[in-house]
Amino acid sequence: MSGPALHLAVEIDGDGAHPAAWRRAAHSPDQLLSPRRVARVAAVAENAGFTLITLDDGVLPPGDSPDPVGRIGAVERAAFVAASTSTIGIAPVVPVTYAEPFHVSSQLASLDHISAGRAGWVVAEEERPEAARAWGRPVVAEARARESRDGVEVARALWDSWEDDAVIRSVATSRYLDRERLHYIDFTGETYAVKGPAIVPRPPQGQLVVLGRPDRVPAAQLDVALVAGRELSEVASAAAAAGTPRVYAEVEVALDTPGATAAERVADLERHTPWTDRGRLRHIGSSDQLVTLLGELSDHVDGVRLHPLVLDEDLPVLSRLVLPALSEQRLVARPLPGTSLRSTLGLQRPANRFAAAAAASVQEEAR
Questions:
Q1: DSSP per position, 150-175
Q2: How many Cβ atoms sit within 10 Å of the Cβ of residue 267?
Q3: Is pLDDT above 70 for 3?
Q4: How many whole angstroms from its chain centre is CA 42?
Q5: How far is CA 270 from CA 20, 41, 62, 70, 313, in A?
């Protein structure tokens, strides 16, 4: 635990956590993919004081007919949101089951530059076999965790392949780069090899904040473990066993609104399709009860990622009632202008592995 403050994240993909959330959305279905909508939702989350927004993604459309399906890539949406926000962290979900980690690392490093150090990465997997056909790749079934592990290792190494001062921009010598401060990573895994270096300078944070499930990605490669459990005790046990610098609990929420109770809203959507059980803690009730639950969770985790039932209905309640109540109890921390996501989470900026190795070699020779 980093301290008494609880850092809150919110997932803002689509219209909400329920597959039929679009039926209660405050906009027409054709507005779902508009840039104005994602910017508006991100602005609400930032003004409310959330630490982080996440954007789910995958190569396949989310959901099935008759529900509207489709999404814009999470990295593209994150880059757009980065230009219209100033304090909130932005972490797209990017699976590396089939995607090339070299390109993923470049996209994410660029996002960190665009957001001035507010970017993160939620590591996920492409679980459906249809995804392999979309990528034109053989199906990866039992080895998805291996691909995630290797993908994160490659991305982290590539972020370090440029030292912080590799860009010199010397007009006098007509040199833009110091080639001695660019490095090959020479990664060889079971299914591919990457030599590098990267094509994007080292991110402002040095290393982006990497979030993921510790049962799918080694804890040593994660900054934030995302843990789940249907009961508080299960979440607490998972958090204690995570072995990562920070731990976030996954919580799905449906809140009472002025127009209907949480139970009524869930029942209304359940008439169309069931709310998928993902093994997460689920709160269906009042904002006061959620505040109490989050207070209990703060004894076990550093943060919570909320998955609202319907964004247009639950996010306003979270903004008006839940976060102010938590702030009054000094249970949440609001990001400060000019701070990186790593700083907000109390994580140190890591040293560049190649620069550190060179410094250690010089010290050894001096002895």
A1: HHHHHHHHHHTSB-TT-EEEETTTTE
A2: 11
A3: no
A4: 14
A5: 8, 24, 18, 21, 16
On the question of pLDDT at 337 being above 70, the answer is yes
Chain-centroid distance, C-alpha 215: 17
248: which 2 tokens? 């976030």
In whole angstroms, give the CA distance from residue 258 to residue 362.
Answer: 66
List, for residues 87-109, the tens digit of each pLDDT value. Answer: 999 999 999 999 999 999 999 99
Cβ atoms < 10 Å from Cβ of 351: 14
Alpha-carbon dihedral sign for residues 99, 103, 109, 114:
negative
Residues linked to residue 54 through DSSP beta bridges, in sequence order: 11, 91
How far apart, in whole angstroms, are the C-alpha atoms of residue 64 and residue 326?
A: 37
Helix axes 232-241, 287-297, angle to 10 degrees: 30
Do the beta carbons of residue 20 and residue 348 sit within 8 Å?
A: no
Cα 239 from chain centroid (whole Å)? 18
What DSSP character marks residue 107? Answer: H
Which amino acid appears at position 147 of this protein?
E
Give the three-state DSSP class for 20. Answer: coil
CA 347 vs. chain centroid, Å, equals: 15
Query: CA nearest 1: which of 324, 252, 242?
Result: 242
Q: And the tokens for 225?
A: 């473990």
For residue 165, give every residue at least 6 positions away whose Cβ sits within 8 Å of its Cβ, in sequence order, or none.
178, 181
Taking alpha carbons only, the member of 15, 14, 20 closest to residue 271 is: 20
| Residue range 114-165, pLDDT digits in tens | 999 999 999 999 988 888 888 888 888 888 999 999 999 999 999 999 999 9
Q: Has this prediction a pTM greater than 0.90?
A: yes
Other Cβ atoms closer than 10 A to 114: 17
Q: Is 180 helix (H, G, I), strand (E, B) or coil?
A: helix
Contact 50, 326 (CB under 8 A): no
The number of residues in the chain equals 367
Evaluate whether 301 touches 279 at the Cβ level (below 8 Å): no
